[in-house]
Write a structure and sequence with these properties.
GO cellular component, one term: endomembrane system
CATH architecture of the largest domain: 3-Layer(aba) Sandwich
Pfam families: NMT1_2 (PF13379)
Main location: membrane
Largest sheet: 5 strands, mixed
CATH class of the largest domain: Alpha Beta
InterPro entries: NrtA/CpmA_ABC-bd_dom (IPR044527)
Number of domains: 2
Radius of gyration: 21 Å
Low-confidence stretches: 1-21
Distance between the termini: 46 Å
Organism: Alteraurantiacibacter aestuarii
């Protein structure tokens, strides 16, 4: 990869590739001494924060000359505010958070995502009550439900709630979370409208068949047990926690909604990366090494990772609960544990590379449901993605690891920043990040060209 000349060009490096011409993204030049060795990084208690915990516990941060404090945050809003306000130097973030902040949805801040933390890792769980209402309708094989399970089986349940004058409520973790968009995608693929957002609205319930609300991840099982919600989409171990508590049943994992979907990112302020370029590279090198450790030798280190994550200063759930989804299996019910080798991917399949097309997908879902109020051109999607996702910074760190012999050259993609057309979606659609408006027009449920949302519903052609 060609290096860009000088740290002064760092701010423009994200726009330095020419994907239209098919040129590969160039690595930034991030050499130099560590400018800020003492760092505070935030996370939410989820198993996909693992790269941060492993970088700490295996000494990868220390190897890079960094003294890192990892601090759990109460919820995603607190975490976001901490990064924006400077109390946190960086964090395990929802992929949608730096994107939304950059476009000014919810809050305005210049955040970047120089690394993707993982692929997959979420699931959708239903309460025992709802599970019993749909269980007899599900097709079976050898006495077990056939997966993936379509949201269409919820239609009679939603209608029954409505007939009783009740709202069918489900939970997700944040308005711009992967979980929100995955839950919405699954519901819409099954013919259920999850609702639209009006301009400036964070509830997103206009026209909803199923109403979605925000609950912090660790509180999901208790919120469902209390009857406030009838199901939720969340990362692990909080789906497995419902199984172990015998209060709910996971019905679909997110790799069955979109196979190998990008999940969390490592996010930080743009001005931090500009002021501390060598520190940024050092952080990324340590996290990439942790990602490689998590996936090496076909997951041979996962048992140790489970023990580390079970500690109270990290995820704090029982090791047995964490292992039920992180060691190559996934438990749907007691006695129904299935192979799931790809449920958590941290390094393989270029999981760490922050593809522009991943950012574009999140932007399409924001537009689909009204969080982006008006139509945008394809170029707007591309330029916004380049402003936030920073493969140039990822490549700078990854190429240094290649030079040091700590990862292989083949572990680093040579790409213009866009994945090829992707299949593996539950609705059978193909996603091409180069044609976002064409992709948006393919959805049966979702805003179409010229449409916007008002309190009275969707208007426009």
């Amino acid at each position: 990869m060609a290096a860009m000349a000088g740290v002064a060009s760092l701010a423009l490096a994200g726009c330095g590739s020419s994907d239209e011409a098919g040129e590969t993204v160039a690595a930034a030049n991030l050499d130099g001494a560590i400018e800020k060795p003492n760092l505070t990084l935030g996370f939410i208690k989820l198993t996909d924060m693992a790269p941060l915990a492993i970088a700490q516990e295996k000494g990868f941060f220390a190897d890079e000359g960094l003294n890192v404090s990892l601090v759990p945050q109460a919820n995603w809003k607190v975490l976001l505010d901490g990064v924006i306000g400077g109390q946190l130097d960086g964090a395990h973030m929802l992929a949608g958070q730096p994107i939304a902040a950059t476009i000014g949805y919810g809050t305005q801040a210049d955040l970047i995502a120089p690394l993707s933390m993982d692929l997959n890792g979420n699931a959708i769980t239903l309460s025992n009550r709802v599970w019993q209402m749909i269980r007899d309708d599900l097709p079976e094989e050898n006495g077990r439900p056939i997966h993936p399970i379509s949201a269409s089986y919820l239609r009679p349940v939603v209608d029954a709630f409505e007939a009783e004058g009740k709202t069918f409520n489900m939970g997700m973790v944040f308005p711009v979370s992967t979980h929100n968009y995955e839950l919405r995608y699954w519901l819409a693929a099954g013919g259920l409208n999850p609702g639209f957002y009006t301009d400036g609205d964070v509830a997103g319930t206009v026209g909803a068949d199923v109403q979605l609300s925000v609950t912090p991840p660790p509180q999901m099982p208790a919120t469902m047990e209390a009857g406030t919600i009838e199901g939720y989409c969340v990362g692990e171990p909080w789906n497995q926690q419902a199984v172990f508590m015998n209060i709910g049943v996971p019905v679909i994992t997110d790799d069955e909604i979109w196979n190998d979907n990008p999940e969390k990112v490592f996010g930080l302020r743009k001005d931090f990366a500009e002021k501390y370029p060598a520190t940024t590279a050092a952080m990324l090198r340590a996290i990439i090494r942790a990602q490689e450790w998590l996936d090496e030798d076909n997951g041979a280190n996962r048992a140790e990772a489970v023990e580390i994550l079970s500690r109270s200063n990290y995820v704090g759930a029982d090791a047995e609960v964490i292992a039920a989804s992180m060691t190559g299996v996934f438990t749907f019910e007691q006695g129904d544990t299935r192979p799931a080798e790809g449920f958590n991917i941290f390094f393989d399949k270029y999981a760490g590379y922050p593809y522009y097309s991943d950012a574009v997908w999140y932007l399409t879902q924001m537009r689909r449901w009204g969080q982006i109020a008006e139509d945008k051109s394809d170029d707007w999607y591309f330029n916004t993605a380049r402003a936030v996702y920073r493969p140039d910074l990822y490549l700078a760190a990854a190429n240094q690891l290649v030079e040091r012999g700590e990862i292989e050259a083949d572990d680093v993609p040579e790409t213009d920043g866009f994945r090829g057309p992707q299949t593996g979606f539950i609705d059978g659609l193909t996603y091409n990040g180069r044609t976002p408006n064409q992709y948006l027009s393919s959805f049966k449920i979702g805003l179409q060209q010229g449409q916007r949302v008002t309190a009275s519903g969707v208007s426009g052609t």
